[in-house]
């Protein structure tokens, strides 16, 4: 069994599903005004970001009510960054006074005669370092890291609905059925399953036998 904690670029452990421990400080960084262009705050949730992206796509699509090819491409580029856990973290942690290098910044650099070699180191293909939660897997697949991060986000979102407050660990495998190991808090998930909060909730209630927490007014 592979553990990313044993790799040269291990992550930050495993996320706790406790509401109090899982609280993340609000993000106020918007170096390229991605959030402003979408009309949402920098601390918007993943669901709010997707909703804003869909609205922008519908607006600027060639068949939309305000067609604009340049803006449609711009929104698509913003989506590539804000829907990718690693790229979003890089964007959100861009130092004060600097910008995230995208196609618009590259074009401005070319116009000003600034060589691309002057780009900040984060723009290369260097390992993301501590930009992900660690995970387990049977075998190694190059898509395991981003896939596991999407599962972690889904479990943290679904955990309050079942009152789960402990750490959770993701294990990806090629078997066709999931499995819950309660002693270690490990959820074994088929690689082919789509990660989202609805499936995560089903895994926690059906396969881990967790009882839904009562809703509060």
**How would you describe the oligomerization state of the chains in this entry?**
single chain
| Rg calculated over all Cα atoms | 20 Å
SSE order: EHHHHHEHEEEH
Q: How much β-strand is present in the residues?
A: 5-15%
Broad shape:
globular
Q: List the strand order in the largest sheet.
A: 1-2-3-5-4
Q: How many strands in all? A: 5
**Which stretches of 5+ consecutive residues score pLDDT under 50?**
121-130, 213-217
What does this structure look like?
With 217 residues, the chain is of the alpha/beta class. It has 2 domains: 2-21 and 130-207, no CATH class; 34-123, Helix Hairpins. Helix content is 38%, strand content 8%. The protein contains 7 helices and 5 strands. A 5-stranded mixed β-sheet has the order 1-2-3-5-4, covered by helices on one side. Strand 4 (179-181) and strand 5 form a beta hairpin. Helix 6 packs across helix 7 (197-207). The longest helix has 19 residues, at 144-162. The chain is globular, with a radius of gyration of 20 Å. The N and C termini lie far apart (44 Å). Mean pLDDT is 84; it is low at 121-130 and 213-217.
């Amino acid at each position: 069994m592979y553990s990313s904690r044993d790799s040269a670029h291990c992550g930050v452990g495993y996320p706790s599903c406790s509401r109090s421990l899982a609280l993340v400080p609000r993000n106020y960084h918007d170096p390229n005004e991605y959030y402003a262009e979408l009309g949402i705050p920098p601390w918007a949730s993943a669901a709010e970001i997707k909703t804003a992206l869909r609205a922008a796509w519908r607006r600027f699509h060639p068949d939309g009510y305000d067609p604009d090819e340049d803006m449609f491409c711009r929104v698509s580029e913003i989506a590539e960054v804000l829907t990718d856990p690693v790229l979003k973290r890089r964007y959100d942690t861009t130092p004060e006074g600097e910008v995230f290098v995208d196609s618009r910044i590259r074009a401005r650099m070319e116009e000003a005669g600034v060589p691309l070699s002057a780009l900040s180191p984060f723009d290369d293909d260097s390992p993301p370092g501590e930009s992900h939660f660690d995970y387990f897997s049977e075998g190694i697949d190059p898509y395991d890291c981003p896939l596991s991060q999407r599962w972690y986000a889904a479990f943290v979102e679904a955990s309050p609905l079942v009152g789960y407050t402990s750490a959770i660990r993701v294990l990806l495998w090629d078997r066709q059925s999931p499995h819950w190991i309660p002693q270690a808090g490990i959820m074994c998930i088929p690689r082919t399953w789509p990660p989202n909060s609805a499936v995560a909730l089903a895994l926690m209630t059906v396969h881990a036998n967790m009882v839904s927490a009562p809703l509060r007014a």
